[in-house]
Amino acid sequence: MPTQTFFNLPEMKRQRLIEAGFSVFSRASLEDASVSEIVRLAKISRGSFYQYFADKRDLYFYLLTQMREQWVANSTGTLRRHQGDLFATVRELAQAGFRDVSRGKHRAFYRTLFLNFSYRGTAQVNKEWARAYKAEGHPRTQWAEMVDVSRLNVSNDTQLRTLLYMLFGVFAQNVANYFNETAGKNDELVAEQYRQNMLLMFDWLQFGVEKETQEES
């Protein structure tokens, strides 16, 4: 994570470095990204960069952490507004998230993230976020206290956590498929296809897949 020196920078200089990171990581994977290009765009020296971050990976995961914090703030507020209704909350958050990754200002960053993420990268994200959760409290714990479990067929926190992983997996899978199929195609049509597919999968999780059949009289 950034050093205190980074946080002591004037807001404009700090923001310029953040935007430089987004710009470079939007065009290249973490492994291929260049510190030289980051410092050129940020208009700082290479030596200054290493006063703020240990390396490019440190900056990359800081950007992801900033996104996580925004998501946590939005998600808890949305869950509270829906009075603990998990599926209503997830549908709203997932659709807003899909709009953000497909049309938002950081679309290219998300595309590079989803198309290049590896097992190693996932493990590093989990490690960095676990450190933040230890200090701030895990959002899953906040959700567990706010979700109206009387609406759900779950009997303990482990089962609720499993359900949350499944719901997030539906979102991530459809975003990844969207980015994999957009090349040379109508972007809006592909985005709508996978948004609808995501909602269908949420319906399957909430209401089941198998049709009810009437017994023959």
Automatic annotation (TrEMBL):
Classification via Pfam families: TetR_C_19, TetR_N
Protein name per UniProt: Transcriptional regulator
Gene source species: Schleiferilactobacillus perolens DSM 12744
GO MF term set: DNA binding
SUPFAM superfamilies hit by this protein: Homeodomain-like
Gene3D superfamilies tied to this protein: Tetracycline Repressor, domain 2 (1.10.357.10)
Keyword Lipid biosynthesis carried by entry: no
Keywords recorded for this protein, A-Z: DNA-binding
Chain residues forming the annotated DNA-binding region: 34-53
Record-annotated membrane-spanning stretches: none
Taxonomic classification: Bacteria, Bacillati, Bacillota, Bacilli, Lactobacillales
Domain HTH tetR-type: residue ranges: 11-71
